[in-house]
Give the backbone structure.
Amino acid sequence: MSFPGDALRADIMESKVPQCPTCRGVVKPDIVFFGEELPQQFFLYLTDFPLADLLIVMGTSLEVEPFASLAGAVRGSVPRVLINRDLVGPFVSRSPRTSDVVLLGDVVAGVQRCVDTLGWTEQLDKLIRTETEKKRREEGGEEKKEE
């Protein structure tokens, strides 16, 4: 079951634990907390790393395993791009690869810079519009369009 963020906002802003209005159970975000088991789906994709032609790492501390070691799971010839607030993991602690690219700062701004540089702005804008509309329909918040 999913909950629209707006329905939980008041509790979160008041530092209260959000509860399901139906069963009164705790509402948990769709993430894996430290100490929880990873979903089986995660392990299905580990075989992709040796086959990758590019690795993009963003918005992470790379401090928790198994994610911390994933940046080293690609072949040495594979370029790695770090878009992050800070240098992390093998980008700082070990010798970075000559093909590594690092964009430090705000993650959203870094992604936008890549999108603009690659000439993908129009495609990204279309994708965002499509997915936003899809999410609105799924949440039952479809608004009538003005003519």
Remarks:
- The two ends are 34 Å apart (CA to CA).
- Residues 142-147 have pLDDT under 50 and may be disordered.
